[in-house]
Amino acid sequence: MKLGPRTAMPGSSGRRGPDELRALGARLADDDETALAECEAVLGPSLRRFLRRRLPADLVDDAAQAVLVDLWRCRHRFDREGSFEAWLFTIARRRAVDQLRARPAPCLPLSQAAERPGADTADRVVRAYDVRRALAALPDVQRQAIEMAYFEDLTQQEIARRLGAPLGTIKARTARGLHRLSDLLAG
Q1: The whole model's pTM is what?
Q2: Per-residue pLDDT tens for 28-47?
Q3: Which among 1, 15, 23, 162 has the fewest CB atoms less than 10 Å away?
Q4: Rounded Cα gap, residues 24 and 152, in angstroms
Q5: Are residues 95 and 25 in the same domain?
Q6: Considering 84, 102, 120, which residue would you say is the last residue of a domain?
Q7: What's the number of CA atoms in the CB half-sphere (13 Å) around residue 66?
Q8: Domain-embedded: residue 72
Q9: What is the CATH number of the domain that holds 156?
Q10: Rounded to 5, what percent of the chain is helix, strand, coil?
Q11: What are φ and ψ of residue 37, in 5° steps?
Q12: How far apart, in Å, are the Cα atoms of 2 and each of 116, 138, 141, 176, 178?
């Protein structure tokens, strides 16, 4: 069964509790094909976020598709008393490792390796320190919005839901924080 990158099921409300997800896993284990599509709709965004942290961008969609295929293929192994989400992410972690192992190791010709200065690494370390220091200087609400967007890979809508703040407020905090961050890094 091939699913699109973000198939949406009618009436799906996004985030669900552990009991609802466990029931979804039980439906999947009972050979309910609509449960697979619902899994992709409900858990697909967090699955892709999980995979983006572990894989290069060009492998994420293939890995997500492979996870869903494995989910369907192994559906009878789901422990109905366990966490469906944990089971899914265990499969995803294994699939990510498989994807990385299957990818050939990047090679650098020896002649080019000798030409690479070590200053690049030092510059990156200094820049990372400067960014951390500038982030720490931001007001907490701005820093929190930026960290959630860039380090947790959340959308502004997800940040607004998580913080219980209006979307416009989150957009303003992020914009002001990025502007202030730019000023701090330029100075």
Answers
A1: 0.51
A2: 999 998 999 999 999 999 99
A3: 1
A4: 26
A5: yes
A6: 102
A7: 16
A8: yes
A9: 1.10.10.10
A10: 70, 0, 30
A11: -65, -40
A12: 44, 45, 41, 42, 39
